[in-house]
């Protein structure tokens, strides 16, 4: 009886799952830049991997447009098969690793950019030292984007800010935060510990594109108090906000944890906004976990502990 063998094309197409992970990341993110960030690699390397995959398949998987990457008809037809392939490979790996009865697997966290440095960076350090079999992935976006990622199973845990106190069933309150007017060193308005909302009238502001909820709340307050917020620029980068506040003497409205280290080091100033106080709730959102439930539970526990430890450092 003749033994059955895999054909060369079968071996070639499935021997390296990284290319298919790249395919899925580009589909979900819609651009090479964001996909590279989600995979922790460079855009140039990801582009080469995609080109190699398309050459291997002999078809175009994406259309390159001015708005990013749009999946082709052929790509759409194989998308579900790719998802199944990666899911089965993940489950096989988890089944092998969890034989040791320790948390293992990939846990994807969606967080606001302002939270990523003070909380997520320390979480990575804790996980790598105490739970080496857990691999963390962090995606940054607005609260609305993170809610969507939770709903479609793109992330396991989300850390967001809310204005309302009626939280959903799949949400835990972590802490309540105040918002601050952030200015350059030597700025008169941000030297006192507190500043009234009315004093923000006419100031030149820089905003993060992820501050959707905060800006809606602030716009409503501004309308009620008959003040004008003069938006000069909107960016995606928190470091760029810090730089432009310092160099261009712009102002930002941020929770203190986003600039805690800068304020403590004397690189920026911040005054708590009062009359009225602008408070928001930091919450942890969770949905149907795509990763190992034990690993996700472990990460959720570590996030809560991390928030408690940071209580005196801006959270």
Describe the protein.
- The protein is an alpha/beta fold.
- It folds into 3 domains: 8-96, Orthogonal Bundle (Arc Repressor Mutant, subunit A); 103-174 and 281-312, D-Maltodextrin-Binding Protein, domain 2 (3-Layer(aba) Sandwich); 175-279, D-Maltodextrin-Binding Protein, domain 2 (3-Layer(aba) Sandwich), CATH 3.40.190.290.
- It is 44% helix and 24% strand.
- The protein contains 11 helices and 12 strands.
- It has helices at 8-14, 18-29, 32-39, 43-57, 73-97, 113-130, 143-151, 212-224, 238-248, 260-264, 293-309, and strands at residues 62-65, 68-71, 105-111, 134-140, 157-162, 171-184, 194-196, 204-208, 230-235, 252-255, 268-274, 279-286.
- Strands 3, 4, 5, 6, 7, 10, 11 and 12 form an 8-stranded mixed beta sheet that branches.
- Strand 3, helix 6 and strand 4 (134-140) form a beta-alpha-beta unit.
- Helix 2 crosses helix 3 (32-39), helix 2 packs across helix 5 (73-97) and helix 3 crosses helix 4 (43-57).
- The longest helix has 25 residues, at 73-97.
- Residues 1-11 have low confidence and may be disordered.
Q: In brief, what are we looking at here?
A:
The protein is an alpha/beta fold and 315 residues long.
CATH topology of the largest domain: D-Maltodextrin-Binding Protein, domain 2
- Whole-Å distance between the termini? 69 Å
Q: Count of DSSP helices?
A: 11
CATH class of the largest domain: Alpha Beta
Q: What is the total number of structural domains?
A: 3
Instruction: Summarize the biggest pleated sheet.
Output: 8 strands, mixed
SSE topology string = HHHHEEHEHEHEEEEHEHEHEEH
Principal-axis shape equals globular
**CATH architecture call of the largest domain:** 3-Layer(aba) Sandwich
Proportion of residues in helical segments: 40-55%
Low-pLDDT stretches: 1-11
Give the overall pLDDT as a whole number. 86
Beta content comes to 15-25%
Report the radius of gyration as a whole number of Å. Answer: 23 Å
Assign the structural class, choosing from mainly alpha, mainly beta, alpha/beta, alpha+beta, or little secondary structure: alpha/beta
Q: Give a count of the beta strands, DSSP E runs of length 2 or more.
A: 12
């Amino acid at each position: 009886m003749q033994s059955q063998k895999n054909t060369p094309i079968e071996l070639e197409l499935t021997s390296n799952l990284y290319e298919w992970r790249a395919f899925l990341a580009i589909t979900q993110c819609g651009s090479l830049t964001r996909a590279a960030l989600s995979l922790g690699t460079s855009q140039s390397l990801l582009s080469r991997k995609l080109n190699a995959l398309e050459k291997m398949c002999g078809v175009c998987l994406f259309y390159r447009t001015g708005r990013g990457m749009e999946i082709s008809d052929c790509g759409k037809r194989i998308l579900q098969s790719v998802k199944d392939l990666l899911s089965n490979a993940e489950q096989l790996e988890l089944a092998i690793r969890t034989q040791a009865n320790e948390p293992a697997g990939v846990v994807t966290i969606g967080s606001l950019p302002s939270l990523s440095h003070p909380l997520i960076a320390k979480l990575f350090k804790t996980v790598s030292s105490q739970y080496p079999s857990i691999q963390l992935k962090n995606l940054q976006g607005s609260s609305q984007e993170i809610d969507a990622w939770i709903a479609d199973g793109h992330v396991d845990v989300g850390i967001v800010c809310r204005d309302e106190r009626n939280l959903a069933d799949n949400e835990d309150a972590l802490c309540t935060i105040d918002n601050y007017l952030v200015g350059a060193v030597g700025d008169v308005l941000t030297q006192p510990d507190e500043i009234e909302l009315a004093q923000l009238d006419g100031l030149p502001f820089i905003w993060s594109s992820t501050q959707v909820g905060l800006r809606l709340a602030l716009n409503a307050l501004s309308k009620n108090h008959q003040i004008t917020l003069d938006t000069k620029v909107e960016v995606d980068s928190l470091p760029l906000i810090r730089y432009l506040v310092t160099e261009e003497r712009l102002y930002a409205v941020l929770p203190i944890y986003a600039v805690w280290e800068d304020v403590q080091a004397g690189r920026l100033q911040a005054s708590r906004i009062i009359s009225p106080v602008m408070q928001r709730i930091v919450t942890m959102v969770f949905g149907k976990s795509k990763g190992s439930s034990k690993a996700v539970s472990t990460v959720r526990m570590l996030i809560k502990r991390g928030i408690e430890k940071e209580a005196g450092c801006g959270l």
